[in-house]
């Protein structure tokens, strides 16, 4: 190329980079060894100024300078660079101890803002160090590419693989995990990922389509919802999912990676939405699935807490949709099968095929929005409280009471049981209040979430016996055969 610099790198509407301006490019190998004018000062390889022949190593040098400029914000032809001081030498001398002094300050501002937004204070220190480590690794690649001697520069194949590895490491940090997107997928990509939409990959079916799990070429596990366009409402459901996905960004809502619209191998219309895969399936499976043993692996305290955590997750998602999302959204189809669980059993609301945008008036927002809350709580109140506290739950309390007879007095155990029953009763009272017949009489989502949090705190402050606090509860995770998306 011989003239690689920022002004010759162009970005399309998806911010994908394209290299342009081949005005002084040369075919390799070059017939003449002497070059009188080549490239732009600051970006051109130093050997070209000494009459060396053109080679691919010259472009590698320019790429190294480009990379350093992107991550430091410093131009290589800045007036500060004189004599033996240039951009690569400056960066090399600063790594790693003084990296923060030469890196673009915008990176650290973004990290701080995102960590505040997602409130990940407990992992702030760890993820900041990982991000800084990634930035240092990028700068080292830039320095290695812009070495003075051509044969000391990195091979471009190694450059690409190293940068990809750094990107994968960066995307695993909480700050950037929320921003991951997968673009430019085709029917063929989804066909290959799901083994031809094989029945073995089928993990769910609904009124408007079927859901398949799959693995993309880069190893990313996905869930693909293929819409049934023959069925009335199928195309409209696809449109609703896409419109909602554009406006939604929340940790308790299933993330949509991308949408695909085109034709299949038979020339028929094809529409699909690609989601983040949820390895622990749906709440429906855990509540009423064929295998009713997974909850039994948890002790009673943990069972109550985990169900409460999922309820809080759903309340958070609804609060975001109704109050914080722009425009505000009514889900309109909230039920256990549309509450999906990730590998940490965190609840995510999914399936926006029936979602509707809410008008700006508060009256309509309250009426439509709270119908979702009513649907949610009614799924848990279809039985009496005595049945919610079923024989298994009561048996667990009795077993824990027996195990702890020598560790605590019967009065303290009895107190614990009464506290647990009181908490469950409070949860059911919230459910009843949310599912009142008249919309105006239903609880507000802000109050729902705060009340559930208080109940959760009360449960955490008590235990069946002192030894419970030392127990490590293991949960069955990653059930691929029954997972839902």
Q: What does this entry look like structurally?
A:
The protein is α+β, with helices and mostly antiparallel strands and 485 residues long. It has three domains: 6-177, Orthogonal Bundle (Transferase(Phosphotransferase), domain 1), CATH 1.10.510.10; 187-276, 2-Layer Sandwich (Phosphorylase Kinase, domain 1); 283-470, Transferase(Phosphotransferase), domain 1, CATH 1.10.510. It has helices at 56-72, 87-94, 99-102, 105-118, 124-145, 156-171, 174-177, 187-193, 234-247, 283-288, 300-324, 362-378, 385-388, 391-403, 410-434, 445-460; strands spanning 9-11, 17-19, 202-205, 209-215, 221-227, 256-263, 269-276, 329-330, 339-341, 347-349, 356-357. A five-stranded antiparallel sheet has the order 3-4-5-7-6, sandwiched between helices. Helix 15 (410-434) runs antiparallel to helix 16. The protein is elongated.
What can be said about this structure in brief?
The protein has 3 domains: 6-177, Transferase(Phosphotransferase), domain 1 (Orthogonal Bundle); 187-276, Phosphorylase Kinase, domain 1 (2-Layer Sandwich), CATH 3.30.200.20; 283-470, Transferase(Phosphotransferase), domain 1. It is 44% helix and 10% strand.
Name the descriptors.
five-stranded antiparallel beta sheet; alpha+beta; 485 residues; disordered C terminus; 3 domains; single chain; LRR_receptor-like_kinase; 11 strands; Phosphorylase Kinase, domain 1; glycoprotein; two-stranded antiparallel sheet
